Automatic annotation (TrEMBL):
GO terms for biological process: methylation. Gene3D superfamilies: Vaccinia Virus protein VP39 (3.40.50.150). This is Class I SAM-dependent methyltransferase. It comes from the Bacteria. Keywords: Methyltransferase, Transferase. InterPro entries: SAM-dependent_MTases_sf.
Length: 234
């Protein structure tokens, strides 16, 4: 995994809030899919927890669970550490290495929320992660759409967000299955149009996306984009 932009401060410079503003919505999506499938974890780990706000909010939905976040960025980790409370703890280090060396306990749920699209060897990352928990939860940006390709928008996600790999629904699910995961359930998420602060282009696209989703959610996402995929696996 190429840690350079996360350890150098470049990622923080491009994303000064480290996406903490997205945490309330993402926490709702995480909680919803787990409860939808009857998962009541006693332990949760987030790999690549950033500044820890998402995990803090998830922990309030599962107050009986032991919750741990792991982060490799020296800039994000101290901010996350300030959010510790009760059974919620944050750790500086590579969770996969720690787990493979027997230095951490196996959790019920391991989450990688908007993570593996940043990882150079994402196939290797997914294969290493698979045996480390009973349930695995992923949030995957769907950067590939007709309008994104026409606008050349994938370059922006590479330069600003650090995405190295780009997915649409079928390739995202096929990637997980090829790595040995059993897909239990998935949901589209539409965070770009639900945030109170959003760009002019996203505000313009909000209504055509909603109208097309009423006709065909899959077609809307493939053509107009603006969505991600929350996937629960075993």
């Amino acid at each position: 995994m190429d840690h350079s932009i996360y350890q150098s401060g470049e990622y923080l410079e491009n994303n000064p809030e480290w996406h903490a503003e997205d945490a309330p919505l993402k926490a709702q999506w995480v909680t919803s899919i787990l409860k939808q499938h009857g998962v009541e974890p006693k332990s949760i780990v987030e790999i690549g927890c950033g500044v820890g706000e998402l995990l803090r909010r998830v922990s309030t939905e599962f107050p009986a669970a032991k919750v741990d976040g792991y982060e490799i960025s020296a800039q994000a980790y101290p901010v996350a550490k300030e959010r510790e409370q009760g059974a919620l703890a944050y750790h500086f280090g590579d969770y996969l290495e720690l787990a493979e060396n027997g230095k951490v306990e196996r959790p019920d749920v391991a989450m990688a929320i908007d993570v593996f699209e940043h990882v150079e060897d994402y196939i290797g990352f997914l294969k290493r992660m698979r045996p480390l928990a009973e349930w695995k939860l992923f949030h995957i940006p769907l950067d590939l759409s007709v309008q994104a390709m026409l606008r050349g928008a994938t370059l922006n996600t590479r330069e600003k967000l650090g995405h190295l790999h780009y997915f649409e629904k079928k390739t995202a699910l096929a990637t997980l299955e090829d790595c040995g995961y059993e897909v239990v359930g998935w949901n589209y998420t539409h965070g770009s149009e639900q945030q109170p602060r959003t760009s002019f282009n996203k505000r313009i696209m909000k209504f055509p996306r909603r109208i097309m989703r009423m006709i065909s959610p899959d077609l809307s996402v493939r053509v107009l984009g603006g969505s991600s995929l929350m996937v629960l696996t075993k």
